[in-house]
Amino acid sequence: VKILSIETSCDETAIAILECTGGLEKPVFNVLGNVLVSQIDIHKEFGGVVPMLAKREHEKNLPVLLDQVAKKVCLDTERLNVDLIVVTSGPGLEPALWAGITFAEALGKKHDIPVRAVNHMEGHILSVLYENNQAIEFPALALLVSGGHTEIVSVKGFGDYEILGRTLDDAVGEAFDKVARILGLPYPGGPLIGELARMDRIKHILPTFTFTMPMLHSKDLNFSYSGLKTAVLYKVRSMEALTDTTREEIARAFEDAAIGILIEKTKRALTNHEAKTLIVGGGVSANNYLREKLSELGKEFTEITLLLPKKEVSTDNAIMIGIAGYIEYLRNPDRDETLTANGNLSL
Ligand code: KG4
Ligand code: ZN
Q1: With b meaning 16 or more CB within 10 Å and e meaning fewer, what string describes 241-255?
Q2: Can you tell me which atom of ligand 1 is nearest the CA of 282?
Q3: Burial label, 264 (beta-carbon count in 10 A; 0-12, 13-18, 19+)
Q4: In terms of pTM, does the model score above 0.85?
Q5: CB-ligand 1 contact for 188 (6 Å cutoff)
Q6: Consecutive H or E run containing 15
Q7: What is the pLDDT of residues 231-258, one digit of tens each?
Q8: Is 92 in the pocket of ligand 1 (CB under 6 A)?
Q9: 88: Cβ below 6 Å to ligand 1?
Q10: Which tens digits make up the pLDDT trace of 62-80?
Q11: C-beta separation of 296 from 251 below 8 A
């Protein structure tokens, strides 16, 4: 099945064309074309993503990207030869999602190709299938860590998801971005925080100070990151001035707590729920310290296979949407639906 996928849930406009084979048993994805533009520079000056601005940019970018990807894949944009169009319908920023849906529907109508909706978070879960020889063995647990979500999900099979725990306030990626802002770093600061923390770990074996891991003693699998962000803010206020050194120290202490709690709760989930596979997905899965800690965790749970997305599909992209679209198509070949954007769409 040849699938054209569209992603516009936040500040990345992306289109991919995938040749999908192998079925549910052994899905294989050949990416024929993949294009993406980030709107980071546009939203930077506002310190975060502005929904209506994102929508306008998506509307501007989509036709250009389609043209680019079609040229790459030697398709005639006037005669699009794909079998299926899939588009993210949520969760995300509704105006941004509508830009993708409207574009997908018009394209489907023009070329008489069916259009289907994909859940963005299912995309993050299934992103681990990209360039991966290992199948997902069920039951699996998924740790989803992005700018909008922090969730531990029970994955009994494709399309069979149950959220076991989630953040009660900010998402972990959001906390990274907010702390970066407190430290005077540009949006989105997640990767920069990781870099500063790494510098401090090289210089000091032990952290200069620590932050308490939020929700460590709650028995559930929920998270909370707004208190940690506030603790960082107070710490910064208590300091005379921010220097390169204190920025590194704060980034490290924050990362220790923010990632530490992800590991603790994941460990708890693996202990209390049967799982053959641990999937980790979402933008924060690109974080090196998290990857390090996960591989240490893997040594404690030797019977569990750890699946991480390739770095290029960790953050938002259209490849993972195409993958989720293929899996959904195999499960429900004849699904016919009215597409609607749903900012709070749940798994
Ligand atoms: O999955 P994603 O691209 O978008 C959403 O669905 O939200 O995740 C974006 C988030 C941002 O908050 C960004 O700061 C964070 O992922 N992020 C990172 C890293 N790379 C991206 N956070 C920490 N370390 C990283 N290396
Ligand atoms: Zn995402």
Answers
A1: eeeeebbbbbbbbbb
A2: 1
A3: middle
A4: yes
A5: yes
A6: strand 12-21
A7: 999 999 999 999 999 999 999 999 999 9
A8: no
A9: no
A10: 999 999 999 888 767 778 8
A11: no
